[in-house]
Amino acid sequence: MKKWAFLLVILLLLFGFEVMKQEPEVTKDHLSIEDYLAQDVIDQGDNQAIDAIDQDDNQSIDVGMDQIYQGDLLLVNKEYPVHQEGVTPDVINLFQNQELVQGYGLLDNTIQLSQRVVKQFNTMIDEAARDGVRHFLISSGYRDEQDQNRLYEEMGSDYALPAGYSEHNLGLSLDIGSTEMAMNKAEEGKWLQKNASTYGFILRYPKDKSAITGIQYEPWHYRYVGLPHSVIMQEKNLTLEQYLDFLKEQKTITTTIDHEEYEISYYPIMKNTTILMPTVRRYEVSGNNIDGVIVTIHP
Ligand SMILES: [Zn+2]
């Protein structure tokens, strides 16, 4: 019995061994079919990837380091000065372009501003006039380095910023007055506080935010940041400093204005980078003047 049992064990072992020996062969055959299929899938996948890259080619954005210092969302304050490439290229003298100045006054004949910003400002002033608010005055716009230096020397560090550290050096900021009375009391000031964000402008130094902005309340100083940013900042009660921090934290946000959806994303930029866009839509890129860019996808 023991001998038979022993033989049975031997047979089982042999049989088992045979099965084990065959198993890899079966598995191998099976695998090779899978390999083949997998290969096919990989090939298809490759084609899809290539197609995707082809499609995205139109929507890939090459971002160089200099882009950090250009655009409508640049943060300029005591910490972050204007870089030369940050000055808006379309600055014009308003006094010499009177056809663009309608429905408001200019303090003097030296006022300069980005032409793009003037157009938005005009649209806003037209709308204010429809509400019966029509005594606006631009008292300051773009200031070059010389202007800013002169102002700094005349006014001192309590009232002016050194050259390069003022938003006025960008061409995107302006001081708006009322011909009637001080802006904190004037209808013009009240109307702007309520409505300017609809036109891409923000009150840059609000009363309750001087600890964040480092600047006392300036009811006259408005900054163009563009849509949809101005609307989001107004709704969430954020200064530009806070808004840029918020975008960095969130990475991507979407917002709907008048039933139109915008997508806003922050990208840190440490070297020249290519950003692939998820969709084929109109977009805008602005640096934050610190360490990255904000891509805004328009409706
Ligand atoms: Zn100002």
TrEMBL record:
Name used for this protein in its record: D-Ala-D-Ala carboxypeptidase VanY
Origin superkingdom: Bacteria
GO molecular function, one term: carboxypeptidase activity
InterPro entries: DD-CPase-like, VanY-like_core_dom, VanY/YodJ_core_dom, Zn_M74/Hedgehog-like
Positions of the D-alanyl-D-alanine carboxypeptidase-like core domain: 111-226
Family matches, as Gene3D superfamilies: 3.30.1380.10, 3.30.200.180
Entry's Gene Ontology BP terms: proteolysis
SUPFAM superfamilies, sorted: Hedgehog/DD-peptidase
Key words of the record: Carboxypeptidase, Hydrolase, Protease
Signal peptide interval: none
